[in-house]
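Why does residue order matter? Because the sequence determines the fold. Keep that principle in mind as you read this record.
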Amino acid sequence: MRKLLSGLTLAALLPAAVSAATAQELQAQLQVLLQQVQALQAQTASASATSGGQCPHISRTLKQGMSGDDVTRLQQFLARDPSIYPEQLVTGYYGALTTAAVRRFQCRHQIVCDGTAESTGYGVVGPRTAAILAIQCPSGSASSTGGSANVGGYIRVTPTQGPAPLTVSVEATLNTTRSCVSAPYQLFFGDASPVITISAPVQGCNELRQTYTHTYTGPGTYTLTLRAGGHQTNATVTVTGSASNSSEDTFVVSPTTGNAPLNVSFTGKANASGSCSPSSYSIQFGDGTSSNIPVSNCSISTYAVTHGYTQSGTYVARFMRGSSQVTSTTIKVEGGPSTQGGGTFTVSPGYGGDAFSVLATFELSTTCTAYDIDWGDGTPHSIQNAGTCSAGKVTKEVSHTYAGNGTYTITLKRGTGSGQTTDTVGVTVVY
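Structure:
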């Protein structure tokens, strides 16, 4: 730009003999060029403002009628593509034009392309749409190790407010891009607790969903963060003043779901009343093993125990005071060898970009081994009758589409007669 203006200045100072144009004509030409330069500068500034330069970082569900800074960031990001948001209006209000732009974005990325905001989330920025938006950011395409693997995920936290001590459940969904390259994810709870590192699996290029629990002991506003490379998603938990009853024994289990081998931590308080004649305490892990918790007379004892589940199945972990159960937690372990045999069995939601579709992946001892899949929604089973063949072990993939949101228990039976095995996997379908 400076070179252009310098050239124009020199041209204006050239003697009249160089050109037949008069000084007035040269001055007029210079004014026209300056106006063109100013127009180009305005266009550049507009494009820079439209591009936003930042990822939307959506941490709540956005829909028509809402407003805020996150709506502004969403509009700025969508306006980068005129085919998605041709109006390019950045108002901070989620109106009909923003809804239409979100719908175009959802269709293009095969998130959802029909229905309504209420039935399918069409035109609503929910967790999956927010994750894909983050993935499309310039900084969201590389893993934290500098690789080229796409990363994406989101967290769902319940409850998001309550009195201290407040225990929350954090459902982390990773690898929503279905990348086949493993990438590390980090879960921050927003307090002084250790960061949890989760490795997304590469087997089958599927999503990974795991649930963690965490207890906030004091009041405050905490930001939970799931981060991988340039991708980040947040949730906020508000903890108010301490609860009146703080002398109860506690039992916190995390995670409560995941793929085998799954290491689960058990933490909490024993002899919280400070009894000088305390009972014995123990944890029964639900797989036939247990661990004693040491307690001291007249004092509160804290404990931290880690136990590894190597086989898939549903386990009930019990916190025991003497021979009495204080409380219990159900732990679901998936993806490893079944306790009943039969090989691996995993279920991946969001198959084919459809939030209501799942893909069941399981092993058969031969290509003609009988199987029966009950999808848990009352629809006809997926069945293969037994045959005669000599082929070796194979991996089968069978898909199913649910009619709507819900939590379903999928039951797989393999083989016949006394050799038949049964496995179950729970899956939550929600949009």
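The chain is about 15% helix and 35% strand.
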